[in-house]
Amino acid sequence: MDQIIIGIIGMGLMGKISSDYIIYSVEAEAIDKVVAQYGRATKKHAIVGGQTSCKAPEVAAFERHLPSDVEIVSCHSLHGPNVDPKDQPLVIIRHRASQESYDLVRKVLLCFGSKMVVLTAEDHDRITADTQAVTHAAFLSMGTAWRANNQFPWELTRYVGGIENVKCNITLRIYSNKWHVYAGLAILNPSARKQIRQYAESVTDLYKLMLGGHKRELEKRIKTAGRVVFDAAGREGEPLMLSDEALDQFSLGKVPKERTPNNHLSLLAMVDCWWKLRIVPYDHMICSTPLFRLWLGVTEYLFRNPALLDESINTAIEDHTFRSDDLEFTFAARGWSDCVSFGDFSSYRDRFEQIQSYFAPRFPEATRVGNEMIRVLVEKT
């Protein structure tokens, strides 16, 4: 360890070909091109890894362009920027390496204080699709809908307090980051494409039932999905991951005295999506991101509170307060799904950055509140 030289490609240290351990820290979309440029000059018997969010193209690039004597050990920190890596999941992938090289990489990564999770590249991509892809799609769609309606949700009392705080804070948190953080995971991961498409279909199906006033069919579908996802996971009798009261302290606006009932289409569709894809979200908690744990927490809070779930179903049929918001949300979910299905990075970037510029003035405050919310609430999950 005393003599090891570490080079990071993509972080201002391009061309560190004399390094013993090289980390490619570049966008997933660009990984093949960058490895092709630098890979053949890699030091003999060096260790190479990457930090991309989608490992299939990364591993393929390494196998295609690196000399056969080079060893491959990749990693991926499962949290966003400004989150303390301590105790957060860090995936390590021993793709082609001796025990000695693998142990060396583990020693280097120990400095983060993260919880190391050993996976294959294939398992990594499947699990990140399960825990991140649809989560991101839901929040991206919320932001798109609010912009389409020319709304800053924290200025509307119906979007302040409890569950709504998670929606607002995490949406702004996602849009305050770089577009490619989410594009690569969504577009390059085949499992992610399938799940984002199903989420859009679930949103559309449930919204049509709401519009048609089909309460009995809507209720049956939602409660069937809830039983499969939550009861089958053995959550009955377990304490809730989050509480509405704990979330009230993280509002961007003034919390009203009376809460406005919401049909929570985004949450209903999430559980419907998990049900349709036979995903048990609790299976991957060991390598889940803070955002996913928050999203699962508020989803669980809704579905395991019978009175609140009934209220959301009644609101969906009888109360039109959120009807225009839900219309734009449905359009948005389908739009993001189409963008991902077409594999169009340019369109993804344009959509993301247009909405990003709309919310940009509130990013500093949202980041501050969001960081504290994640710090406090993740400790409870």
| Distance between the amino and carboxyl termini | 35 Å
Strand content: 5-15%
Unreliable residue stretches: 11-15
DSSP strand tally = 6
Task: Let me know the average pLDDT.
Answer: 88
Percent range for helical residues?
Answer: 55-70%
Largest sheet: 6 strands, mixed
- State the shape: elongated
Order of H and E elements: EEHEHEEHEHHHHHHHHHHHH
What structural category do the secondary elements indicate?
alpha/beta
Q: Provide the gyration radius in Å.
A: 22 Å
Strand order of the largest sheet: 1-2-3-4-5-6
Counted by DSSP, the helix tally is 15
Summarize the structure.
This protein is an alpha/beta fold. Helix content is 57%, strand content 8%.
Topology summary:
Blueprint: E1 6-9, E2 21-24, H1 31-38, E3 47-50, H2 55-65, E4 71-77, E5 89-96, H3 99-109, E6 115-118, H4 121-148, H5 163-175, H6 180-188, H7 190-212, H8 215-231, H9 244-247, H10 265-277, H11 290-303, H12 306-318, H13 323-341, H14 345-359, H15 363-380
Parallel strand pairs: 1-2, 2-3, 3-4, 5-6
Antiparallel strand pairs: 4-5
Helix pairs in contact: 1-2, 4-5, 4-7, 4-13, 4-14, 5-15, 6-7, 7-10, 7-13, 8-10, 10-11
Structural description of this entry:
- The chain has 381 residues and is α/β, with parallel strands linked by helices.
- Helices cover 57% and strands 8% of the residues.
- The protein contains 15 helices and 6 strands.
- It has helices at residues 31-38, 55-65, 99-109, 121-148, 163-175, 180-188, 190-212, 215-231, 244-247, 265-277, 290-303, 306-318, 323-341, 345-359, 363-380; strands spanning 6-9, 21-24, 47-50, 71-77, 89-96, 115-118.
- It has a 6-stranded mixed sheet, sandwiched between helices.
- The protein is elongated.
- The model is unreliable at 11-15 (pLDDT under 50).
